[in-house]
Amino acid sequence: MKQDIIILSENHHIVTNDLANQYRILPKSMYENTLELYVDNSSDNEDNKEELELFLGKNIIFHPINTSEIEKALSTYYRKERPLSSNKSLNVDKGDFLENLLFEAKSLKCSDIHFEVYEDFSRIRFRIDGQLIERYKIEHDNYLELVNKVKIRAKLNITEKRLPQDGRITNDAFDIRISILPTLFGEKIVMRLLGQDASNIDLNTLGLKKEELESYLEAVKKPNGIILISGPTGSGKTTTLYATLKLLNHSRRNIVTVEDPIEYTLKGINQVQLKEDIGLTFSSALKSFLRQDPDIIMLGEIRDSETALMAIRASLTGHLVLSTIHTNSAIGTISRLIDMGVPSYLIAETLNLSVAQRLVRKLCDNCKKETNCNPLDFPLNFKFPYEISSYYKPIGCNKCFHTGYKGRTAIYEILKIDGEITEAIKDNTITKLYSNHKDYKSLPEKAFEILAVGETSLEEIYSILINI
Question: pTM of the predicted model, to two decimals?
Answer without folding.
Answer: 0.73
